[in-house]
Amino acid sequence: MNINSKSNRDPLHDRNFYIIISIILIAIMDGPTIAPILPDLAKVFDVSSQEIQLVMAAFFLPIGFVTPILGIIAQRVGLKKVLIPSLILFAIAGGCSSFAHDFQSLLGWRLMQGLGVASLNFIALTMISMMYQGRALTTAMSLNVSIIGISTAIYPVIGGSLGSFSWRYPFLLSVTAFPLVMLVIMMLKLPQKPDDSQNDNFKPFLHSTWLSINNPTVLGLLLAIGSIFAIQSGVFMTYIPILAGVNFGASGLVNGVILSSMSISVAIVASQLGKLAVLTSEVTLIKIAFAITAIALMITPVVQNAWFLIVPSTLFGVAQALAIPSTQVLLAELTTDDTRVGLMAVNATVQSLCQAAGPLIAGISFGLWGMQGVFWATAAISLATLFLFSFLLTPKRKVVPSFIELLNTVTREKSRK
User: Fold this and answer.
1) pLDDT digits (tens, 9 = 90+) for 100-137
2) Cα(138)–Cα(274) distance, rounded to whole angstroms?
3) Rounded CA separation 390/387 (Å)
4) CA 286 to CA 299: how far, in whole Å?
5) What pTM was computed for the model?
6) Is 168 helix (H, G, I), strand (E, B) or coil?
7) Count of alpha carbons within 13 Å of 311, Cβ hemisphere only?
C-alpha cells in the first residue's frame, strides 16, 4: 500500500518509521554481533589475525558491488520487490553460516549474507527521504542514528555472550529477519511516486544520478561517510577486538562491552544532534568528528589494559554520532524524486566498499608496521580526510537549494525532449 506524499509529522508517531528502523537494525546486526568473537573464530578455524579479518571483509565486499545494481532494479520495479527477497536471503545465509564446517565455507556463506544485506541500508534511507521533509527529516535521521547506537550497544554484548557458549550462536541471530518480512508485506506503506517519475527510463536515471554525484559537495560528503565506515570496520570493529583478545587476553564478553561503549556514546550524542545543528552547521560537525577520530586513534597504541580501550571507543562513538547523521541529512537534501534512489544507492555502495576495504587496509598496516601501526596509519587517514573534506566543502548551506534547482531544470528539459 502507498501514501500520497512526504510528511512533516513526528516520525515517533508514524508506524512506518518503526518498520524502517527495524530494517536498518537487521542490516547492521551482523557486524557488532560477530566482531566480539573474531579471536575465538581464529582459534576454532586455526587461522591468523590477518586472515580472520576476512570474515568481516567477505561480508561487506559484495555489498559494495551489488548495491548499484539493486539500486537500479529498485528504481524500476519498486523498493518492496527488492527488500523482501533481500531479507529472506540474509536470514538463510546467516543461519547457514552457523553450520559452516571449515573456514572456506564460512567465508562463502558470509559472501551470500552480504548479498542479502546489500539493499537494506540504502532502501531504508531512501524510504526515510521519501516519507519526511524539513525538520521531520532531520529528526528521523537523528532518531535513526540514536536507535542504531542503542542497538549496537546491545548487539556486541549479545554476540559476546552467545559466543561464550558457542561460536555458532551469534550467526543464528540473522533468522530474526523472517518476522520482519511479514511486517513489510502487510503493514509498510510508502509514498506514491510522481507520474513523471523516470522509473522506466534507464538512461535518464543514470544521467540524473551522475549529475547528483558529479558535484564537490556530494563528493566531499561521500568521502566523509566512506572514511568513517572504513575506520569503523577496519579498526574499531576488527582490530580493537583483536588487540583486546590477543594482546590483553580479553574474552568475547569483554570485547562486547568495549564495543558497546562506542555505541552508547553514539546514541547519547546523536540524540542531541538537533540542538547541536542549531548552534553550528552540519559541515562543521563533520569536521569536528574527524578531529575527534584522529585523537581516539592516537590514544589507542598507548593503552596497556583492555578496559582502557573503552576511552578511544567512546570517543569514536561521539565522532560517528556527529558525522553520520549530518552527512545523511545533507545528502538527502541534495536529492530530487528522480535522483533519490540513485544517490542513496551510491551512498550505500560507498559505505559498503569502504567497510570492506577497512579491514583490508588495517591488515596491510598490521603486516607492515605491526599492531600499533594500524592505529597510527588510520589516524593519518583521518587527518587527510579532514583536510580533503575542508577543501571540498564550506559551512554554507546555500549550495543545497541551488543544486536542487539545477537538477530540477535538467529533469524538466529531459522530459520535454
Assistant:
1) 999 999 999 999 999 998 888 878 888 888 888 777 88
2) 7
3) 5
4) 20
5) 0.71
6) coil
7) 14
